[in-house]
Amino acid sequence: xxxxxxxxxxxxxxxxxxxxxxxxxxxxxxxxxxxxxxxxxxxxxxxxxxxxxxxxxxxxxxxxxxxxxxxxxxxxxxxxxxxxxxxxxxxxxxxxxxxxxxxxxxxxxxxxxxxxxxxxxxxxxxxxxxxxxxxxxxxxxxxxxxxxxxxxxxxxxxxxxxxxxxxxxxxxxxxxxxxxxxxxxxxxxxxxxxx
Length: 195
Prior knowledge:
It contains five helices and 13 strands. It starts with a strand and ends in an 8-residue tail after the last strand. It is globular. α1 packs across α3 (62-70). It is of the alpha+beta class.
């Protein structure tokens, strides 16, 4: 993704690498160690974002995060960007056809000017994944608690399109109640002009 200078001119492309978390072969070898996956959860604790990222209460510890990511229901990826290094993570789940739910967070070492460009590049790489049958995904869907205004603003900047608000779509574990959530999506072609 291109960085845009203050005067609006194109600058150099930010190099972003996605590191997938997956099992290697039939044994218990994974692309990341259990400790590395637990550390990702730990970063959300030190960044004070765990309560926001895991608002529904299904993941409350590093061990629960590891178990969820090993379950086969989630595809975890780690974001490594030139400059900040490991600067975020995300995961896809609830697969149906070429649609998946998307969840992601940036770490505090990349909050600021490059976070939008990095996230746009991540979304572009994910939506352009191919296998022998063609594109793996056509659309990513997200539901974000409506009260998370900063997150919703960020989603708009990275190209997620908001459809509208769904009453009671998000379970808030801390408050023990359902809250409204904003439905958004990302499709291939959103930022083709920037590639």
